[in-house]
Design a protein that fits this description.
mainly alpha; 2 domains; 133 residues; 6 helices; 80% helix
């Protein structure tokens, strides 16, 4: 019975240690988001640490900054791709809004086209979990 409580206490202690460190890393990520240039790599560093936690590995500040450095350009590539996709969707939603199209289109077609581009954006957002895995 003593072993059970000891194991439970160790698990709680490990959880608390990682939780506190992850909270600090979140604060650092928010601070690194102030200059926009470091936002995507800071998120990549945080995702790197979260991936290690999900795999049951120990984490540290070196893991955060390793992810920051290792994925700096990949994170920016993904961010620029997301910005481009957002611009394409917003442009299409505005283009197909009633009264904004350069050519007069039927309101039902306008509704369907806006629904299509909304669905494309939702699909894109759903697929964003895979580049981070």
């Amino acid at each position: 019975m003593k072993d059970t409580f000891r194991i439970f206490w160790e698990a709680l202690k490990d959880f608390w240690d990682e939780l506190f460190l992850l909270a600090l890393m979140n604060i650092v990520t928010v601070l690194l988001a102030i200059p926009v240039i470091t936002l995507p790599p800071a998120l990549a560093g945080l995702w790197n640490v979260a991936n290690r936690v999900a795999q049951g590995k120990a984490i540290g500040w070196s893991d955060y900054f390793e992810g920051f450095r290792l994925y700096f350009w990949k994170a920016w590539g993904l961010a620029l791709l997301n910005i481009l996709m957002l611009l394409i969707v917003i442009t299409n939603l505005q283009f197909y809004a009633p009264g904004n199209a350069p050519l007069e289109i039927h309101p039902t077609l306008s509704l369907w086209m806006r629904a299509l581009w909304t669905a494309v954006m939702l699909l894109w957002l759903t697929l964003q979990m895979y580049p981070l895995a």
